[in-house]
Amino acid sequence: MTTIPASLRRFVIERADDRCEYCGISQIGQVATFHIDHIRPTIADGETKAENLALACVSCSLRKGARQKLKDPATHELVFIFNPRQQLWADHFCWDGLAINGLTATGRATINGLDLNRATILAIRAEEELLGRHPPS
Description:
This protein is an alpha+beta fold. It has one domain. Helices cover 31% and strands 16% of the residues. It contains five helices and six strands; from the N terminus they run αββαββαββαα. A hairpin with a 2-residue loop joins strand 5 and strand 6. The longest helix has 12 residues. It is globular and about 35 Å long.
């Protein structure tokens, strides 16, 4: 396991506005501490530097693991997982109430592979909506 310096950890959390950069939920109110995710995994020579790190909730982090590509459910093509350092969220996803819709092969594959619309996350987003934290700004 790679050690991430505290200053770099704080930078990643602040840059992400304390939200998972994949599913959008806020770390505020969550029991588990979010992970600092290596977008390109260390096993694939991904470096521990700001340009390769994203804040991820535990569920998204564990579902992503060391995978770099996922299958687009519409085309069955293998595509790279959404990269929050190189891509804009709004180019690949949009909100449909509490659910996330994919606008591209990358968006659809990321939603499917990380299960971004699972029942638990929809319930969390509903609670966040009541608290004024959904959708993310």
